[in-house]
Design goal:
Blueprint: E1 5-11, E2 15-21, E3 27-34, E4 46-47, H1 49-66, E5 74-81, E6 87-90, E7 100-101, H2 109-117, H3 126-129, H4 138-148, H5 152-158, E8 161-164, H6 166-174, E9 184-185, H7 187-190, E10 196-197, E11 202-203, H8 205-211, E12 220-221, E13 225-230, E14 241-247, H9 248-255, E15 264-268, E16 272-279, E17 290-295, E18 303-310, H10 314-324, H11 332-337, E19 347-349, E20 367-369, H12 377-403, E21 410-413, H13 420-430, E22 434-437, H14 442-454, H15 461-467, E23 470-474, H16 480-495
Parallel strand pairs: 1-5, 5-14, 9-12, 15-21, 21-22
Antiparallel strand pairs: 1-2, 2-3, 4-7, 6-8, 10-11, 13-14, 15-16, 16-18, 17-18, 19-20, 22-23
Helix pairs in contact: 9-14, 10-12, 12-13
Bound molecules: SN-glycerol-3-phosphate (G3P).
Length: 502
């Protein structure tokens, strides 16, 4: 088997990629394609699920071609995905009834408020599902689709419609679609719907009932690592075992080898997501974090995590590129930021989807504060990068408070970790070393590990630990007084975004 490879499909918020890994966990080939971001009105974000499925097929074929491999060379394929993004489709025609409603979308605010007003407020379901009532999660999005698409509720009640996050949509298509595709998910994805009981890993009838979602629409919850079935005969991966499924942030945690209690990673993608492995213990948060499933490998006990979710980090750089035209490509943000020494007093709080952890305020909207005539575009670029680091500091503080243990270092991954200025500032503002692994694309790697473990390509989690290797480490250089002074300004800037949406 060692001359074979593992494929992973990473269906992210802005693009879909396929990566092929070897036994050492190194990247052999990658292909990637962006999809359209659809913004029908302020606060709404949608994706065309058919476009995403077509891109998935294209990049899978592309990655195989680049590595000069065929399906015979692939021992298994794993899926990882943007979580919470909700899709409803017809199980007999395979057609979505509406675009996928993306995790960043805030249209369900009224639904969340109404559910909370029945008692318990934002914490109504928290003890069971680990999440506050917020626009981020899938359940209320499904409710919105059933309430707003003509005939959808009746079709759902008749059993014609099914729900899935992007993992479920891809797996269903990859395993045959209308010709018997598997309608399944894993506990990491299910734990982001607000519909799964964290203890039993099964759908909660009562919550689904309150949200008006027929349980018959929901996928079967399998483990994150097991052979679910084989890829359909027509696909480029025809016959390959489909054997791993993890939400992208949990996949990155797995790929970063955060396999012991107290190990944490921070992924810098469209948003930022810090996850702390809390082992088989489900730790409730008192500081604005989420309790979520980290992974479940085969029939081994469930491993949980605390998560700090930040809605906007890399997508702020894209916004500066696409909506302001201040830079021509995302990496140019660093060049622009390096033209100045500091932020010139400007703070950019990107509350585009309200604020997620640790605030959970859907009434917040973005703000740039501290402007004077002195501030130039270099300072703004610097403030854009700093926003990611400051938000991560807020999450790290919450994590330390919830777990009762101070993290002494932080593993980082994702696209933005190539940005040295950001990584140095991150270490400065956290006050702990920041460590980047050799393979920074740990999301796809984690999904590959889940699939490879299920088919015996890797024999145990020890292989993951052995394969993990440090590439670079940034030590904090800022003195503590300066660190706290800057951070206090940030905290003040955040308060300026509150109460913006009535
Ligand atoms: O919860 C949303 C998250 O899964 C999205 O990740 O990497 O697509 O920004 P990413």
């Amino acid at each position: 088997m060692s001359d074979q490879y593992i494929a992973a499909v990473d269906q992210g918020t802005t693009s879909t990629r396929c990566m092929i890994f070897n036994h050492e966990g190194r990247v052999v080939a990658v292909d990637q394609k962006e999809h359209r971001q659809i913004f029908p009105r302020a606060g709404w974000v949608e994706h065309d699920a058919v476009e995403i499925w077509n891109n998935t097929r294209e990049v899978t074929a592309g990655a195989l071609a680049r590595a000069d491999l065929t399906h015979d060379d692939i021992a298994a394929v794993g899926i990882t995905n943007q979580r919470e993004t909700a899709l409803v489709w017809d199980r007999t025609t395979g057609e979505p009834v509406y675009n996928a409603v993306v995790w960043q979308d805030t249209r369900t605010d009224a639904i969340c408020q109404e559910l909370g007003s029945r008692g318990g407020g934002a914490d109504r379901y928290k003890a069971k599902v680990g999440l506050p009532l917020a626009t981020y999660f899938s359940g209320p999005k499904v409710r919105w689709i059933l309430d707003n698409v003509d005939g959808a509720r009746e079709r759902a009640e008749r059993g014609d419609l099914v729900f899935g996050n992007m993992d479920t949509w891809l797996i269903w298509n990859m395993t045959g679609g209308v010709d018997g595709g598997l309608h399944i998910t894993d506990p990491t994805n299910a734990s982001r719907t607000m519909l799964m009981d964290l203890d039993t890993l099964s759908w909660d009838d009562e919550i689904a009932g309150e949200m008006g979602i027929p349980v018959s629409m929901l996928p079967e919850i399998r483990s994150s690592s097991q052979v679910y079935g084989n890829v359909r005969p027509r696909g480029v991966l025809a016959g390959v075992p489909l054997a791993g499924d993890l939400g992208d942030q949990q996949a990155a945690t797995f790929g970063q080898a955060c396999l012991a209690v107290g190990e944490a990673k921070n992924t810098y993608g469209t948003g930022n997501f810090m996850l702390l492995n809390t082992g088989t213990e489900k730790v409730p948060s008192k500081n604005g974090l989420l309790t979520t499933v980290c992974y479940k490998i085969g029939d081994q006990p469930t491993v949980y995590a605390l998560e700090g979710s930040i809605a906007v980090s890399g997508s702020l750089v894209q916004w500066v590129r696409d909506n302001l035209g201040l830079i021509g490509s995302a990496p140019e943000i660093e060049d622009l930021a390096k033209t100045v020494e500091d932020n010139g007093g400007a703070y950019f709080v990107p509350a585009f989807s309200g604020l997620f952890a640790p605030y959970w305020r859907s009434d917040a909207r973005g703000a740039i504060v501290g402007l004077t005539r002195y501030v130039n575009k270099g300072h703004l670029a610097r403030a854009v990068l700093e926003a990611t680091a400051f938000q991560s500091r807020e999450v790290l503080d919450a994590m330390n408070a919830d777990s009762g243990v101070d993290l002494t270092e932080l593993k980082v991954d994702g696209g933005m970790v190539a940005n040295e200025t950001l990584m140095q500032f991150q270490a400065d503002i956290l006050g702990v070393p920041v460590i980047r692994p050799v393979v920074a694309e740990t999301t796809a790697l984690g999904a590959a590990y889940a699939a490879g473990l299920a088919v015996g390509y890797w024999s145990s989690e020890d292989d993951i630990r052995t394969n993990w290797a440090e590439d670079k480490r940034w030590e904090p250089q800022l003195d503590a007084a300066d660190r706290e002074r800057l951070y206090a300004r940030w905290r003040k800037a955040v308060t300026k975004t509150f109460d913006w949406v009535e």
